[in-house]
Amino acid sequence: MTFTKPLPKFDPRSIPVLGIDDHLAGVALERLTPQAMRERFRHPPVWTPEHSVEKKFADREPAPAAVLLPLVMRNELTLLLTERTTNLSTHSGQIALPGGRTDESDQDAVDTALREAREEIGLPRGHVEVLGTLPTYVTGTAFIITPVVALVKPGFVLQPNPGEVADVFEVPLWYLMNPAHHRRHEIEFDGGIRQWLSMPYTDPMAETDSSEARERYIWGATAGMLRNLYRFLSA
Predict the structure, then answer these.
(1) Coil, helix or strand at residue 234
(2) Reduced to 3 states, what is the DSSP secondary structure of residue 135?
(3) Which residues 6+ apart lie within 8 Å of 146 measured at CB?
(4) What is residue 185's predicted lDDT score, i.e. its pLDDT?
(5) CB pairs under 8 A, 24+ apart, for 102-108?
(6) Where is pLDDT greater, at 6 or 228?
(7) If we measure between CA atoms, which residue out of 134, 129, 177 comes closest to residue 156?
(8) Residue ranges of the domains in the chain?
(9) 3-class state of residue 170 by DSSP
(10) Is 0.85 topped by the overall pTM?
(11) How many whole angstroms separate alpha carbon 79 and alpha carbon 151?
(12) Averaged pLDDT of the chain
C-alpha cells in the first residue's frame, strides 16, 4: 500500500473536543430490544446517513469490505467490539468492528462480514441472526464498507486471532446510541480539515495491571458507522 502523504502520527485522545451532542435525544430503550430491532429492519424508516465518506489519504484502488455489528442478546443488547493489534498495516491498535476486505468467494457483504467475524474472533455463524445492512461507509484508506447488523445468541466461545485481535469486549448499546457520549473532533491534514467522532467508554469489566477500569476509545470509522446506526434507529 502506498500513501500519498502519511497520516500524521497522533493520539486521537489528545485532539480537543469541539462539541458534545448532548442536545440530541438518545434512542428510546424500548427501541433497543431484539424484537424492536427486528421490526425496525423489517420496516425501515426514511432516513439519511450522517457519515458516509472520509477524506481520502491513501493512494490505492477502492476495495469492497464489510463489518459485522454483533448485538449480543444479554439482559440488554451489547455491541461486540475488538481492539486491533498494533502490527496491522491499517487502523492498528484501534477499536473496530469485526470485518475486512471482500474475497472473490464471498457471495455478498453479509457473507464477508460473517466470514471475517469467524476468522477474526471465532464467532460461530450459528449464533448470528442477520437483521440487515446500513449504507456503505468509505474510509480514508479507500475501503468501501457495508455494515451488517445482527443479533447474536449468547453461549458462544470466542477464539480471537492473535495476529489481528488484541482484545474483545462488549459495550451496552444504549450507551453508544446516546449522543451525550458522542464527541466531535477535527485536525488539519494535507491542506484540509479531517473531522471525526469519538465515543469513549469506560469498561468496568476490563482487567488491567492496576485493577482499574479501562477506557475504550471508540473513534473514526467505527464511531461514524455507529452514528449512522443511531440515525437509523432514532428516525
Answers:
(1) helix
(2) coil
(3) 64, 65, 66, 67, 109, 112, 113, 133, 134, 136
(4) 95
(5) 102/63, 102/64, 102/65, 102/66
(6) 228
(7) 129
(8) 19-234
(9) strand
(10) yes
(11) 9
(12) 89
User: Which amino acid is located at 204 in the chain?
Assistant: P
H-run or E-run covering 187: strand 183-189
Task: For domain 19-234, give the fold.
Answer: Nucleoside Triphosphate Pyrophosphohydrolase (3.90.79)
DSSP 94: -
Q: Quote the CA–CA distance of 218 and 57 in Å, as a whole number.
A: 20
Residues 139-156 have pLDDT tens digits of: 888 899 999 999 999 999
pLDDT of residue 4: 42
Residue ranges of the alpha helices (H) in the chain? 34-42, 109-121, 173-176, 220-234
Q: Is the dihedral of CA 115, 92, 200, 186 positive or negative?
A: negative
Vertex 52 angle, CA 43 and 120, to 5°: 85
- pLDDT digits 0-9 by tens, 194-228: 889 999 999 876 555 555 678 899 999 999 999 99
- Which residues touch 21 (CB under 8 Å, ≥6 apart)? 179, 180, 182, 183, 184
The residue type found at 203 is D
